[in-house]
Amino acid sequence: MNKKSSPDSNTTTSTVNDRGPRGDAKRLSGVNWWKTFFDDNWKRLGFDSIDPERTAAETDFLEKALDLSKDEKVLDLACGVGRHSLVLARRGFKHVVGLDFTQAYIKEAIAKAEDEDLAVEFVHGDMKDLPFADESFDAVFNIYTSFGYFADERDNEKVVKEIARVLKPGGRFLQDVVHRDYIVRHFQSRGWSEHDGEYLMEERSFDLATSRNECSWVYVGKQGRTEKPVSLRMYSLHELVAMFTRAGLEYKEAWGTWDFQPLTFDHFRQKLLAVKPK
Question: Which of 19, 49, 79, 220 has its CA 20 to 30 A from that of 108?
Fold first, then answer.
């Protein structure tokens, strides 16, 4: 595969212009962009382009950071096509559940699990209103910036409250999101990436007043040209820690990489561990 790559990001980007943070770009935050964004283009360029070795290394991190045992019940929140859920099931974890809003991704994950006869359940649902009883899970993970989608900040906070609700006392939560402090220091208003002859081009504007990254993503490739809006709320570490605290979770630690380097300003992503007190 001919793909420009970065070891710790969702998509890979090369800068072609940098105009810095702006607040005057076309506003996208009022659009429920996430309802239509996660289509076959994103599956092909965002999920299918990731090699199995990388997924295995990320799952190694999740096992260690969350101190998982194979008889615990684990929720992969915003699981996509089940990359990590399926690996956990292959490794002998007996009670893995994946939830995602995109029905097509859930159908694909179910088909893979059935084909391999894996003990994993996939559920179509809304992360703001989880279809699970209180104290159902020993651990929850929410990774690859599957957070900050909603225009109303109360909805983003509700996601964390739902996570706290479904965790058992002593349960662990691991979140992996883009690091706002890095974005502010290294903002790039345009970028592109290439995957097997297909291209993804991004036009970005960061709103300092709302901490939202307002983007237009243009796919050019096998299925022609498709443009999608993206509006993502980005967080500094202290904001997430405060949100966890309000939800009743106790922040424990943060890392900047999948090999447990302590978080610094130079890390594009941040991985946070929190615990629900007993």
Answer: 220
- By the 8 A CB rule, do 211 and 33 touch? no
DSSP state of 263: P
What domains appear along the chain, each with residue ranges and CATH number? 32-178+236-275 (3.40.50.150)
pLDDT tens track for 84-126: 999 999 999 999 999 999 999 999 999 999 999 999 999 999 9
The two structure tokens encoding residue 21: 């943070």
**Cα–Cα distance for residue pair 32/152, rounded to 1 Å:** 11
What is the distance in angstroms between the CA of the first residue and the CA of the last residue of the chain? 47
pTM over 0.90: no
Q: If DSSP codes are grouped into helix, strand and coil, which group holds residue 132? A: coil
* Rounded mean pLDDT, 265-277: 97
Query: Residue 24: its pLDDT value, please?
Result: 39
What sign results for the dihedral spanned by CA atoms 157, 135, 81, 55? positive
Note whether 23 and 209 are within 8 A (CB).
yes
What would the pLDDT profile of 46-84 be if each residue is shown by its tens digit? 787 788 999 999 999 999 999 999 999 999 999 999 999
What SS3 state is found at 3? strand
Contacting residues for 32 by C-beta, under 8 A, at least 6 apart: none
| Burial class for 213, CB neighbours closer than 10 Å (0-12, 13-18, 19+) | buried
8 Å CB contact between 110 and 142: no
- Sequence-ordered strand ranges (E) for 94-211: 95-100, 120-124, 137-142, 167-178, 190-195, 198-207
